[in-house]
Amino acid sequence: MASSATVFIQVWVDINAIQNGSTKGVYAVDNRVGQGSTGEGSTSLATHVTNGTTIQWNVYNIDPTSTVVPAITAIGNAAVFGAGGQPQNDGTGAYVGQVQQTGQSSYQITFNVQKQPGSAGITVNFSPSLVVQ
Amino acid sequence: MMNASNLVVLQAALLQPQASITIAVDTAYVASKGGQNISNGIYMMDNQVSYGSTGEGTLELSTVVPVGSLIGFNTVPIDTNSGDTVIITGFTVSQGSVFGSQGYPQQQPPINGEPAGAYWIGQAINAGSQTYQIQIKVTVGQLRPISYYINWDPFITAK
Lengths: 133, 159
Description:
Radius of gyration of chain B: 16 Å
Distance between the termini of chain A: 28 Å
Shape of chain A: globular
Helix content of chain A: under 10%
Largest interface: A-B, 30 and 34 residues
Number of helices of chain A: 0
Number of strands of chain B: 10
Strand content of chain A: 35-45%
Distance between the termini of chain B: 41 Å
Largest sheet of chain B: 5 strands, mixed
Structural class of chain A: mainly beta
InterPro entries (chain B): PixA-like_sf, Uncharacterised_PixA/AidA
CATH superfamily of chain B: Inclusion body protein
Number of domains of chain A: 1
CATH superfamily of chain A: Inclusion body protein
Oligomer: heterodimer
Strand content of chain B: 35-45%
Radius of gyration of chain A: 14 Å
Number of helices of chain B: 2
Pfam families (chain B): PixA (PF12306)
CATH topology of chain B: Immunoglobulin-like
Helix content of chain B: 10-25%
CATH topology of chain A: Immunoglobulin-like
Order of helices and strands of chain A: EEEEEEEEEEE
C-alpha cells in the first residue's frame, strides 16, 4: 500500500561499485529541487521540506533486471524527526517518517546488499541531511 | 511444448544488459518549468562508475562500457505516489557511432510494473565515443494530465 508521503528520497546503487566502508556507486535524489534541495545525485543530498511532511525512503539497484536487491536496514535518529517521526520500515522495504521539528539535521542511512546468495553482505552508510522550515 | 507466449518470455529473459542507466525524474519540478529549459530535476546514473563513467547524477552522464555491451535505459518518477509517469520516446545520435545501426536502442516489454516505454535496451556495437539524444515524455496530473517532452545529450564511450 502506498504511504502518505509527499517527499521521496531514492537511493540508487551501482552494485558493481559498492564496497564496505565506501560510498562509491551510491546516488541519492529527491523530488524537492524546486524547493531548494541541494546535492542531488550524491550522498551529500540536503532535502528541503516543510515541517510536518511525511517522507519515504527507498533504495534501488540501478540494474532493474538484477535479482540483487539492496535493502535499507536503518535510518538513524535526527532532531528534526521530533518525538514521533522517526522513520520506520513500512513492511514493503521502504522507510517512512515525518519531520516534526524545524532546523537542519544530518541523519544516517544504512543499507545492505548481498551480491550473491550465501555471500557476506556489504553494508553501506552515508549521511545526507534534512532542512526543515 | 513451447508456444508463442513462451518464446516472448524467453526472449525477454535472454536480454540481460551488462550496463544499466537509470533516469530518475522529479516530475513536479519538470511541470513547474512547463518542460522548458530543464537543467535540473532529471538525474542519470549508471552502474559503470568502476569502468570509468563520469557525470553520475547529472544530465551529462558519460557512460563507459566494453564493446558489445547491452545497455539498459530505465526511466522512473521519483514521486511514486503521484501517478505521474516517465517513459522514453526515442533516441538519436548526433556524433559518433557506438550504437551503429544494429545496436540502436529498442523499446522493451515493461518491467517491474512500469508503463510501456519506460525500459529500452541498446548495444555498444562499435568502439569509440558518441553523443546521443534521449527524449522522454513526462506525464503529470490525474484528472487532466499534461505531457512534457524533454531531450538532452548524454555520452557513451565503448572500449
